[in-house]
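Dear H.,

Thanks for agreeing to be a second pair of eyes. The structure we're designing against is below in token form, covering all 328 positions.
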């Protein structure tokens, strides 16, 4: 692992630790306040914080487990554990957060018991939640914006294309948390103003919907990485450019790529070399291409080149080079 990647992992660990501390504190305060005040919106937000706290624990575990050295059973390392635990975190948001918020909302709308006083408790706790989770969100966004600037892309573009699920998960979670707290405050205020507790139930249902959206977005991204997501279109173009620059390469017959970790790519290419190149020269060419690809695309960790005769590589067996991949 390069020094840059180590620094990025250290930054990710600090971001997750800050989020974990914030969510753990808020979880306890919201749960106690929800029980005392009888606010369904506050209890829904407490469930949200429970899910977020557990998820930060999953992300911390993934940061430690993913850095283990390759072994005989896992020759490409354990980097994909980052993707696995991000997927588990998404399930946690969906089940623990959205599920309990949905229950609280429906219970409130269908005649659950409600206390009509102590609204100030809900306001104080939800305000504290916005402050604490907002602090965590600012930290996550700051780190993500720095990574986006280093890559020369916008923050939104980086969040969409980044293979690192750690800070992305924190950004999504904290964004949903801050928005959920604001919605819960609105529900409590409408309950106080109208005397109708159904407003808190509606707020809890809105929080549930927000959490479902966040969970599905994170799960979609993590599942794509788990099943072997390719390099980005820009990375594939750079790899093809390296191959095209070599005068010895007559044609690139096939290019396959796969993410082994957020900062590790596997590259496998079948290339047709020009006629008359002896075997010793083929070895030198392969070594030079390997080095050039790694220099051009730093995320590349493994390169496999297969010199294949074009006539033996039947047209029916060809696969697309992958430049037309969806960019969204």
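And this is the sequence the design step returned. I haven't edited it by hand at all.
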């Amino acid at each position: 692992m390069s020094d840059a990647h180590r620094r990025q992992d250290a930054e990710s660990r600090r971001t997750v630790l800050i989020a974990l501390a914030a969510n753990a504190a808020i979880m306890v305060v919201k749960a106690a306040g929800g029980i005392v005040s009888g606010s369904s919106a506050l209890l829904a937000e407490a469930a949200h914080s429970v899910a977020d706290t557990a998820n930060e624990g999953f992300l911390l575990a993934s940061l430690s487990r993913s850095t283990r050295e390759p072994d005989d059973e896992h020759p490409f390392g354990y980097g994909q554990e980052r993707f696995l635990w991000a997927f588990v975190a998404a399930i946690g948001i969906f089940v623990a957060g959205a599920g309990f918020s949905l229950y609280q909302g429906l219970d409130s709308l269908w005649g659950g018991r409600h206390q009509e006083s102590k609204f100030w408790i809900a306001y104080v706790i939800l305000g504290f939640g916005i402050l604490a989770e907002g602090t965590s969100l600012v930290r996550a966004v700051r780190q993500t914006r720095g990574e986006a600037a280093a890559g020369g892309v916008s923050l939104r573009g980086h969040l969409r294309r980044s293979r690192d699920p750690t800070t992305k998960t924190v950004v999504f979670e904290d964004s949903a948390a801050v928005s959920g707290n604001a919605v819960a405050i609105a529900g409590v205020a409408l309950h106080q103003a109208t005397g109708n507790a159904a407003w808190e139930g509606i707020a809890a249902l809105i929080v549930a919907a927000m959490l479902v959206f966040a969970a599905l977005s994170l799960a979609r991204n993590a599942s794509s990485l788990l099943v072997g997501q390719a390099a980005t279109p820009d990375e594939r173009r750079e790899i093809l450019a390296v191959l095209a620059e070599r005068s010895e390469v007559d044609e690139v017959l096939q290019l396959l790529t796969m993410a082994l970790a957020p900062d590790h790519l596997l590259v496998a290419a079948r290339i047709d070399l020009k006629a008359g190149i002896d075997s010793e020269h083929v070895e030198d060419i392969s070594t030079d291409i390997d080095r050039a690809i790694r220099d051009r695309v730093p995320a590349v960790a493994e390169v496999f080149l297969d010199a294949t005769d074009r006539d033996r590589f039947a047209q029916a067996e060809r696969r697309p080079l992958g430049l037309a991949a969806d960019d969204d």
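Two observations from my side: Confidence is low (pLDDT under 50) at residues 324-328. The longest helix spans residues 3-37.

Warmly,
E.
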